[in-house]
Amino acid sequence: QDLSISCRCVSGGANGELADWIKDSVIPGFEAAHDGVTVTLNEFAGGDEQLTQQLALDFSTGAGADIAGFDGFLIPNFVEAGLLKPIAELVGPEAMEWEGWSHISDGSKALMSYDGQPYGIAMGTDVRMIFARADLLESSGIDPASFQPTSWEELLEAARQVKQAHPDSFPLQLNAGVPMGEATTMQGYWMAILGTGESITDEEGRYIVESQGILDVLNLYKTIYVDEELGDARAQQLGDGRNRTFANFRDAKTAMLVEGDWFYRSVTAPGSEFEVAERDAKMTWAKMPAKEPGAGWNGQDFVTISGGTGWVMNPNTDAPQLAWELLAYMNSKEQLDAFQEFQPRIRIRDDVPVPTDAFLTETSSVLLPLTTARPNDPNYNAVSAEIQRMTEAVVSGSMTPEEAMARYKDAVTEIVGEDNTASLM
Amino acid sequence: MTDHLRQFLGRAGFAFFTALIGAIFALPLVWFLFAPFNSRAELGLAIPEPFSLSNFRQVLENSFAIRALGNSLIQSVGGTLLVALAATLASYALSRSPLPGKRAVTYVLLLFSSVVSGSAAMVPIFLMITRAGIIDTHLSVILVFAGGLLPTAMFILRDFIDGIPRSYEESAMVAGASPVQAFFDVALPVIRPGVVVVVVWAFVNIWGSFLIPFILLRSAEKMPASVAIYSFYSEAGTPIVTLLAAYALLYSLPVVLLYLFVSWKFGFRFFGGIKA
Amino acid sequence: MKRFSLLSPRAGAAFITPAGLLVGAFVIVPFFWVIYVSFTNRTLLGRTALNPEFVGLANYLELFSPHRFLDPGQFGFSLVLTIQFVLFSALLGQAALGMALAWLLQQVPKPVKAMTETVVIGAWILPEVVIGFAWFAFLDYDGGTLNGMLDAVGLPRGDWLLDYPFWVIVVFNTWRGTAFSMMLFNSAFASIPPSYFQAADVAGASSWQKFRDIGLPLIRGHVVTDLILITMWTFNVFTPFLLTKGGPGNQTEVLSIYTYRVAFRDFDFGKGAAVGVVVMLINLAFALFYLWVARKRTPGGAA
Amino acid sequence: MASVKFENVTKRFGGFTATEGLDFEVGDGEFVCLLGPSGCGKTTTLRMMAGLETPSEGKVWIGERDVTRVHPKDRGISMVFQDYALYPHMALADNIAYPLKVRGQPRPERHAEAQRVADVLQIGHLLDRMPAQISGGQQQRTSLARALVTPSDVYLFDEPLSNLDAKLRLDARGFLNHLQRDMGITAVYVTHDQAEAMALATRIAVMDRGRIVQYAPPLEIYRRPATTFVANFVGNPPMNLIEAEARIEGGQLHLQAPGLHLAPLPVPAALATRAPGRLTLGVRPEHLALAAPGAANRIEGRLFANENMGPETLVTVTRTEGEARLTARIFTDEAPRLSGAVAFGFEARHLHLFDAEGLRVPGDGE
Amino acid sequence: MASVKFENVTKRFGGFTATEGLDFEVGDGEFVCLLGPSGCGKTTTLRMMAGLETPSEGKVWIGERDVTRVHPKDRGISMVFQDYALYPHMALADNIAYPLKVRGQPRPERHAEAQRVADVLQIGHLLDRMPAQISGGQQQRTSLARALVTPSDVYLFDEPLSNLDAKLRLDARGFLNHLQRDMGITAVYVTHDQAEAMALATRIAVMDRGRIVQYAPPLEIYRRPATTFVANFVGNPPMNLIEAEARIEGGQLHLQAPGLHLAPLPVPAALATRAPGRLTLGVRPEHLALAAPGAANRIEGRLFANENMGPETLVTVTRTEGEARLTARIFTDEAPRLSGAVAFGFEARHLHLFDAEGLRVPGDGE
Ligand SMILES: Nc1ncnc2c1ncn2[C@@H]1O[C@H](COP(=O)(O)OP(=O)(O)OP(=O)(O)O)[C@@H](O)[C@H]1O
Ligand SMILES: Nc1ncnc2c1ncn2[C@@H]1O[C@H](COP(=O)(O)OP(=O)(O)OP(=O)(O)O)[C@@H](O)[C@H]1O
Ligand SMILES: [Mg+2]
Ligand SMILES: [Mg+2]
C-alpha cells in the first residue's frame, strides 16, 4: 500500500524544516508501524495560486497526494466546488473519536472547518504584533523596555519621534498594496480595521463596503505613507516590496513593523537573509493597539488575527482509513514533539509544549486570547484582492480615502452581490 | 587616402554602434556575474567581498533543486526533439504539397495555440493526461509541450522551407531517390539552419516554462528546475536572493551552452544560394 | 488534373501524422474547450466549478460593459494598455531594433558580430524567472546597476519601477525579445543573393539606401511572419509580471496579467477564456492588417 | 535505352499555356535537341519527360510504358538542371555520387565512379570542394557529372553547357557525342545555342511559343527552314530576310525589293496556282559574297560594319535608310577594304522563299 | 573615362590561389576582354576591379587613384553581373533607374533616362513589367541597361550575353560595339566565347590558371598565339597541334611527324642558335583544305568524322592509332564524300611553331 503526502516544502529550500520533519521523522515512524506501507513526500515548490490550481485539478480527478498541505482560508471555496469531503464522511464517524481532537482548541479546529465540519487538521497557528527595533527606539528617545502604544495616535507619535531623530528612516511598516498579496490584508488592513471595532464582514457575514472604520484605516495609511512619510511608500508598490520592508528592518531603517510570529521564527532568525544581528538585544515587540483604548474589535484594547495552514485529506483517496491514520499520526503528540526539534513554534495541540523559547511562549500566551480569524467564505479571496487595491490606491496617493472606498464598494458589490454587502454609514 | 579614411571611419562607426547596442544589452545581466558569489547578495550591484562559493554550496545541498536540473534536461531534450521532428516533417509536407489553403491552416493553428497557451486550457489538458494515465510522467510533459509549441514551430519552419528551391529535391528524385530519401538526404540538411532556430527556441521555451510541468507533475523526483527554483522563495513568497542568484546561474548554464554549441556547430543561417 | 508533387499523398500523410496527433490533442481539443467555457460561468473553485451554467455572451458583455470599461483593473484599460505595449515593445522595439541589428550585423567585423549576437540572444534564451530577477536588480533604486551608472556620469537616478512602470516593461520586453526578430531577419538577409547588394554597391548606394531599396522589400514576407509572431507573443507575454506584478496601481496590467488575475486570483475561468478568445481575434486583425500592408506595397503583385 | 513519345501534350500553368499539343517521338538512341527562344517551353517539356510536371492533357511514353503518372525515380532517367541544383551541403564527390548512393552502392565504389566521370569532365581535382567554392563553369560540369554517373534509359539535359568556354564545351560535347554514338544513349537536350544543336543532335525540335514548329535533322533545318521563325532563329548570324514584291510574268517569278537585283526565277509548284503577292526572300550570310556591281544576282547597300573575327569577316550593309540590314559572312582572314556602296552577290539556288504567313515555299525537288 | 591598372595582384581563397601576379593595364577608352577557360580567375579579376573582392597582394588603380581598398560605390564603375542581379521587386524602369535614384535624381528625369537606354536595347516597351515577367534575354538586357544608364569611368561586364540566343546576342554585341566606338567608354568584359571576344575587344587578355598568358589585340591573338595554350583555346575548333621532330639541315628546318609531309622551311632566327629538338607545329582548321595525295605540304590520316554543320564542314582524321587527331574546317554546304585515307593540304605561311615549353617561335618578320 502506498500513501503520499504533498506540501509546499522543500528540503534545503522553502519550509525545509517541514520537509525534513516528514522525511526524517513522520515517514520512518509510520512505516515502522505499518508493515508494507510506503509513504512518499512530494516536495512542492511554487506559488500559492499555482498550488491552488494544482490541488483543485487533483481533487477533481482523483489524482494527487492522499494528504495535502492546505491553506485554511481556501476550504470554503473547495467545499463549494465539491472538492473536499468532511473527515467524518470520508473516514467514518469513528474518526471524530480520535484522541487528538480533545487537545485542539475550537478556534484551531475552525481554521480547517467549514459549516462546523472539520476537513483537516491545522498545522499550527500564528499571531500578529508590532516588531520593534530597540536600538532605534532608544536612540530616538523612546524606552524600548516599556514601549507599548495604546492608540494609533501613540503609535504615530512614536514613529514621528523616530523620524525626527533619523530623517532617513521609515519608522513604521504597515503592509499595503497589491504586490504583497494576502500579507497586505492580514498584516496590514486586518490589524487596522480590527482596531476600529469593525471587521471585514458584519455579524451576518455581509461584507462591509462603506464605514467610518474603513475611512479611518485608509486615513491611517494616508498619514503614514502620504502625509507624513513615516513609512516606505515605494516598498508597498514594488514587486519585491515585502523584501524591502524586511531589509529596512534589518538595516535599522524601520523601527516598527507589523508582522506575524513567523517574522521572528523565520525571517530574522540567525542564518537567514534578513537576520538581525544580536537579535535578542535589538529586537522587541509590542501589541497592536486599537484606534483608541477599548475601541477595538470586541471592545478590546489590543487586536491581533490568526491564520493557519494545515492538512486535508484527498477526497478521492484510495485508502481513507490508512490516510486518516497517517494524518492522525502526524498530529500525534509524539510527532509534534519531534517537530519542535526541527522548528520550534506554537503547535496545534495544547499538550505539545512550546519549547523553551521566551518569545514564542510570551507572545502566544498574551496574544492568542485576543485573536480572531478570517471569515469562512468562498468570496473572501476576491474581496481580499480588492482590499489590497484599495490600500494601494491610497498609499500611492492616486486616490483619496473616500474615492478608494467608493471603488471598493463597487467592486465588492460586483463580486458578492448587493445582498451580501452592508453599509455602516 | 581620404577615401580610405572615410571608409575606415564608416566601418568603425558601424562596428562601434553595434558593439554599443551589444553592451547595452549586456548591462542587465552584469548583476548575475557578481551576486552568486556574494554571500550577502542584494539587488545592488556589488563586487563580491569576500568572493565566496558558499551560496553554491548551499544550493548543492538542496537535492531537490539539483535533481530538477536533470529533469529539466530530460523534458527539454525530449520535448525539443519531438517538436523538431514533428514540425520538420509536417511543415515539409505542407510546404511541398499542392494542398490549397495550407498557409491559412498553419496560421489558424498558430492562433489556436495562442489561446491555448493561456492558463484556462490547463484544465482540459490535465483531464486528458489523467485519462491517458500518464499524469506525473516525463512523457506527459514532453507531449503537452510538443503539442503546444508545434504550431509556432511549423509556422517558422514552413517559411524557411518555402524559400528553398524545389530543384534540390527534384534532382534527387530524378537521381532515383524516393521522396523520403530526398527529404533526408537533401532537404533536411539544407533546412537545418531553420530547424536549429526551432530547436533553440523550443528548448528555451521548455526549459523556462513553469506552468505545464507544475500542473502535470507531482513527484518531487520529476520536477524540473523551472519549478524547483521556487524552492528558493521563502514561505511568504519572497526570494532568497543569495541562493536564487546562485541557482539561477546553474539553471541558466545549459541553455547558454546549448546556444554556444549550436551556433558554433551549425550556425543560424541558410546556406544561401550557391550561384554567386 | 493532379499536379506532380514532391511528396506522395501517402508520404505526406505520414509526415503530417505525428504533428497532427499532437496538435489535435493538445491544441485543437483544448481550444474548443476554451471556446465552450467562454460561454459558461465555470470557475475553478466554488459552486460553479462542477456545475457551470451556460451564460451565452455574458462573459463577453461583461468584458465590454461600458460601465467603468476604461478604469484601471478593467478589461478595457488592459486592452488599451496592451495595444500600446505591443506597438511600442513589439513593433517599434523588437521588430525595428531587431531589423536594425540584423542589418548592422551584416557589415561589421566578425568578433563584434559574434559578441553582440551572443549577448542579444542571451537575453532571449535565459529562463524568464532568471531574467525577471536580473532586471529587478538592474533597476533597483538604491543599488541597481542602472542608477549606479547614472550616478557615475552625474545624471539623476530614477525610480524606474514606480515612476515609469509602463516604459520599464516596454524596454524590458524589447530587450527580451529582440533576439528572435534579429535571428529571423539575419537569416532572411543571408538568403538574398549577395549579387543584389553588390550590384547596389556598384551603383553607388549607401548602406541605408541598400536597406531601404533592396533588403527590406525583399524580406517583406519574413517581416510579416515576424510581426505576426511577435505581436502574438507580446499579447501573451507574462514576464512583466515578474517585474511589476501588474502594478503599481494596475499601470502595467497587460492582458496576460489581467487574465491571470481573473483566472487564478478570482478563479473565473469563463471570463478568462473569453479574454483569450478576444485576444485571438485581435491577433487575427493585426495579422490581416500586416498582410494587407505588405500586399498593398507590392507593385503589380508579382515577385 | 528507350524511346520517348509525347501524345498531344498540353501544359497549362493557371491560365497560361506553356506548351500546346506537343506530339513527337524521340527514337531509341536518338539525340534530340530542343531549340528555341527563351520562354518558349523547352524546360517545361523536359520536366514533363522527367515527371517533374504532370501534363494538363495528353500522355507521355517512355519505351513501351505510359509514364504520364509515373514518379520521376521510376522512369529510369537522368537529368541536368538549368540551375544545377547542386546540394550545397555535400562536397562535389558526394554530389556526383549521390545517384549511386541512392542505388545502394557502397562508398568506395561510388566514389571511384564519381572520380572517373569527374576526370573526364576535368573537375577531378575539385572533388573535395563544396559547391560554393567553385566557379560557375565548374558547377555546371559537376551537375553534368552527376547526371552521367549512372546508366539511364533517357538522359535529359537542360542547357548543360551554357556557361562553359568553347574548348570545354567542345570537350563536353565530344563526350556527349561519344556517349550517344558509341553507347547509343537516348538523350533530349535543351539549348538556345544552335551551333551546339547542329553539332550534337540527330534531330532538332525548334520550338516557338509552346509549339514545335519544325522537327527535323540539323541539316534539314539549316537548309530548309520550315518558317521564317526557324530561318531567323537557326544560323549565326541569322538568315537575311528580305520582304519582296512578287509577280509572275511570262512563267517566271519576278521579285522586287529595294537594292535587290535578281534574275527571274522559275515558278515553284506551290505558287503556280495562286497569286504570290508579298513574299519573303531568305539568304544566309555565308551565301553572300562581295560582287562586282553589275552581277546578275546582287543586293546593294551602304556599308554599316566590317568586322574581322579571325578566320571570317562579317560585312553588314543597310539597304534603306531604316532598319533593313543585311549581313554577309565572308571567309577570309583579312577584312576586305570597303567603304560606301557595297554589293553582295549570291546564287539563286541558295535562296529561300517564304509566303506571307512565313511558311516555306518549297523549291523544286523538295 | 579612365584607365585601370593591376599591379602584381594576387588573390587567394584560403590556400587556393585564384589569380597570381596580375600585372596589366586597360587603357583609357579600351575595350578589353578577359578570355579563358572556366575557373581561370576571370570573375575574380573583374570583382577585384569592382571592389567586391580585396586583393591578397598588389594594388589596383583606376585612373590616377589607388583604389585597392576603396568601396565599390566610390570607384566610379558600373557592372553587369553574371546572374543579372535584377531586383525582383522593382519594375524594369526602377531597376534600370536605380543607379540614378541613388544619385538623387528626381523621378521624372531618371525615368526619362531609363527609357532612353531601354529603347536603345529594345526593351523600352517592357518598362512596366517586373523581372519575373520577362524572358531571360530581356532580363539580361535590363541588367545591361542598368549598367549603362549612368556615365561611369569604367564598365565591367561578366559574361553579359552568355544566356542569349544567337540573334539577341548579335544585337547586343552591336550595341556594345557602338558604345565603345562612338562614346569611347572604357570596358572590361569577361567572356568564354572567343568569337564574342574577337568581335568586341580592342585587346584580349587570355587567362590560364590565374595568370595572363597573352594580352594583345584580337587578330594578333588569332594570328600569333603566344603559347600552345592560347593557340588551343582561341579558335573554334581550336588550332591543330602536331608534335614534330625538328632537324636543321642545310640551313633549312626539317620537320617530321607521322603523316606529315612538309617541304623544308627557312630557319626562324630564334632557332638559329640552338638545337630545336622537338617542336610543336600548329595549323588552324580553316587553313587546311582537302588536297590531292602528293601535294607538297600535306598531312595524311584516316577519316574519323565528317560533320556538316550548315555552312561549313568539319573533317577530322586520325594520324596515328592513338589520339593524334586533326580537324579541318571546310567552308562548303555539303560534306565532301570521303572515306579511308584523307589528305589535307596547307600553305607554309599558315604554320605556327612552338618550342618544347609551348612558347611561340617567332616567324620571320614578326
Ligand atoms: N510554374 C509556372 N507558373 C507559371 N508560368 C510558368 C511556370 N513555369 C514556367 N512558366 C512559363 O512557361 C513558359 C515556358 O517556360 P520554360 O521554363 O519552359 O521556358 P524555356 O523555354 O525553358 O526558357 P529559357 O530558355 O529561358 O529557360 C514561360 O513563359 C514561363 O514564364
Ligand atoms: N570562395 C571561393 N573559395 C574557394 N575557391 C574559390 C572561391 N571562389 C572562386 N574560387 C576558385 O577560384 C577559381 C577562379 O574562380 P572564378 O570564379 O574567378 O572563375 P571564372 O574564370 O570566372 O570561371 P567561370 O568561367 O567558370 O565563371 C576557381 O577555380 C574557383 O574554384
Ligand atoms: Mg529553361
Ligand atoms: Mg565566372
From TrEMBL, chain B:
- Any single GO CC term annotated in Swiss-Prot or TrEMBL for this entry: plasma membrane
Q: Where is the ABC transmembrane type-1 domain?
A: 69-262
Which SUPFAM superfamilies does the UniProt entry name for this protein? MetI-like
Origin superkingdom = Bacteria
Q: Membrane among the record's keywords?
A: yes
**Keyword line:** Cell membrane, Membrane, Transmembrane, Transmembrane helix, Transport
Which membrane topology term applies here?
Answer: Multi-pass membrane protein
- Give the main location: membrane
Q: Tell me which InterPro entries the record gives.
A: BP-dep_ABC_trans_perm, MetI-like, MetI-like_sf
Protein's cellular compartments: Cell membrane
Quote any Pfam family the record assigns: BPD_transp_1
Q: Which GO terms describe its biological process?
A: transmembrane transport
**Matching CDD domains, A to Z?**
TM_PBP2
Q: Where are the transmembrane segments?
A: 12-34, 73-94, 106-127, 139-157, 195-216, 236-262
* Cell membrane found in the keyword field: yes
Q: Give the UniProt family note.
A: Belongs to the binding-protein-dependent transport system permease family.
Indicate what this protein is called per its UniProt record. Carbohydrate ABC transporter membrane protein 2, CUT1 family
TrEMBL record, chain C:
Q: Cellular location of this protein?
A: Cell membrane
Q: Which UniProt keywords apply?
A: Cell membrane, Membrane, Transmembrane, Transmembrane helix, Transport
Location (main, coarse): membrane
Q: Does the keyword RNA-binding apply?
A: no
Stated membrane topology is: Multi-pass membrane protein
Which Pfam family, just one, is annotated for this protein? BPD_transp_1
According to the entry, every stretch annotated as the ABC transmembrane type-1 domain falls at 80-290
List the transmembrane segments: 12-36, 75-105, 117-138, 164-185, 223-243, 273-293
The GO annotation for biological process reads: transmembrane transport
> A GO CC term?
plasma membrane
Highest taxon listed in the record's lineage: Bacteria
What Gene3D superfamilies does the entry give?
A: MetI-like
Family, according to the entry, reads as follows: Belongs to the binding-protein-dependent transport system permease family.
Q: What is this protein called?
A: Carbohydrate ABC transporter membrane protein 1, CUT1 family
Which species expresses this protein natively? Answer: Limimaricola pyoseonensis
Automatic annotation (TrEMBL), chains D, E:
Q: Where is the signal peptide?
A: none
Key words of the record: ATP-binding, Cell membrane, Membrane, Nucleotide-binding, Translocase, Transport
Q: Which InterPro entries does the entry mention? A: AAA+_ATPase (IPR003593), ABC_transporter-like_ATP-bd (IPR003439), ABC_transpr_MalK-like (IPR015855), ABC_transpr_MalK/UgpC-like (IPR047641), Mo/tungstate-bd_C_term_dom (IPR008995), NA-bd_OB-fold (IPR012340), P-loop_NTPase (IPR027417), Transp-assoc_OB_typ2 (IPR013611)
Question: Which intervals hold domain ABC transporter?
Answer: 4-234
Q: Which GO terms describe its cellular component?
A: ATP-binding cassette (ABC) transporter complex, substrate-binding subunit-containing
Name its GO BP terms in alphabetical order: carbohydrate transport
Family per similarity comment: Belongs to the ABC transporter superfamily.
> What's the protein name?
Carbohydrate ABC transporter ATP-binding protein, CUT1 family
